[in-house]
Amino acid sequence: MPNGHVIRGARVGSAPPRLPERHQPVPCRSVSYWCRNGHRTDIRIVADVTAPTVWDCPRCGLPAGPDAQDPPGRTRAEPYKTHLAYVKERRTDAEGEAILAEALAALRNRRGGG
Ligand SMILES: [Zn+2]
Questions:
Q1: In angstroms, what is the span from residue 63 Cα to ligand 1's centroid?
Q2: pLDDT at residue 21, rounded to an integer
Q3: What is the mean pLDDT of residues 28-53?
């Protein structure tokens, strides 16, 4: 009964694979980044290269920074603004009153009042 074991390509006495002797491993260090969602990302960079200050979190895409207590993005996050807040940035109160009066007048005219 054939056992089916066929060994190919390995000869007894064949030379083991050798790395080129002049190859030196590049010294690396690992840097950790944290995003606002608490995801930790470890990257390895070449030791004499300055680590980037921001690294995109591979899990959620938010920017991640090397300080776990102060991840980037938090301070840049704009507080939620209502539509009215945006309108008030563009128009003064007087302009708002005029627009409101105009709109009310038009509304009354449409209703056939007056
Ligand atoms: Zn994340």
A1: 8
A2: 64
A3: 93
Q: Are 100 and 88 in contact (CB under 8 A)?
A: no
The residue among 69, 35, 81 whose CA lies nearest residue 54 is: 35
Q: Tell me, in angstroms, the distance from the centre of ligand 1 to residue 40's CA.
A: 7
Task: Please state, in angstroms and rounded to a whole number, the distance separating the CA atoms of residues 93 and 95.
Answer: 5
C-alpha dist (Å) from residue 7 to 4, 17, 18, 39, 104: 10, 18, 22, 46, 92
pTM: 0.45
d(CA 58, CA 33): 11
Q: Write down the mean pLDDT value for the chain.
A: 81
Q: Which of 4-18, 45-59, 89-103 has the highest mean pLDDT?
A: 45-59
User: Which residue type is seen at 47?
Assistant: A
CA of 49 relative to ligand 1 center, distance in Å: 24
**What does the DSSP 8-state code read for residue 32?**
E
**CA 34 to ligand 1 centroid distance, Å:** 7
